Amino acid sequence: MDPGTIAAAVGGAKHAIDLIRLAVEQRDELKAKEATRDANDRLLDIQQACLSLVGENAQLMKRNTDLENEVSKLKDFHTDIANYRLHQTVRGGICYRPKPDMPEAKMAVYLCANCAAKGVKTYLQPVGGGFSFQCAAGHGEIPSDKPEPYGTTQADTDFNPFDR
User: Fold this and answer.
1) How far is CA 64 from CA 75, 80, 108, in A?
2) Helical H runs in 82-149?
3) In this predicted model, what pLDDT tens digit does every residue of 103-128 receive, in sequence order?
4) Which of 6, 65, 101, 150 is most exposed, with minimal Cβ within 10 Å?
């Protein structure tokens, strides 16, 4: 074989190897780009999931704070309502009044039993010449013990208006 032919054959083989090497590099680059694109898509999905979780976490933290505040209010209410006792008036009304050992026991302080059952402290106000109490929350009139004579309160005596 002629040295020119051998050189041309070697040159052609070298060129073919270079073309194969270039094709492999392009294939590898394409695979790397695909892998990078797939990784970026997955990263975007993860970032979106994280943002969603941050939003949900903020909502849960607010809900937790609201519930803690509600529990605190309920504890305060139950501590306060423990100073009162359920009372049935002479005329059949049901309300709360201060326990006898409480300072408020000397005053005519009455609480709506319906409101207290809902965790709300509503003071009853005398209406109708003192024969009834009115709940400001709309629970109507509650029959009282008796009308208060001038200078006394319903809490001072156990007067029964039907004993006259």
Assistant:
1) 16, 24, 39
2) 113-117
3) 766 677 889 999 999 888 899 988 87
4) 150
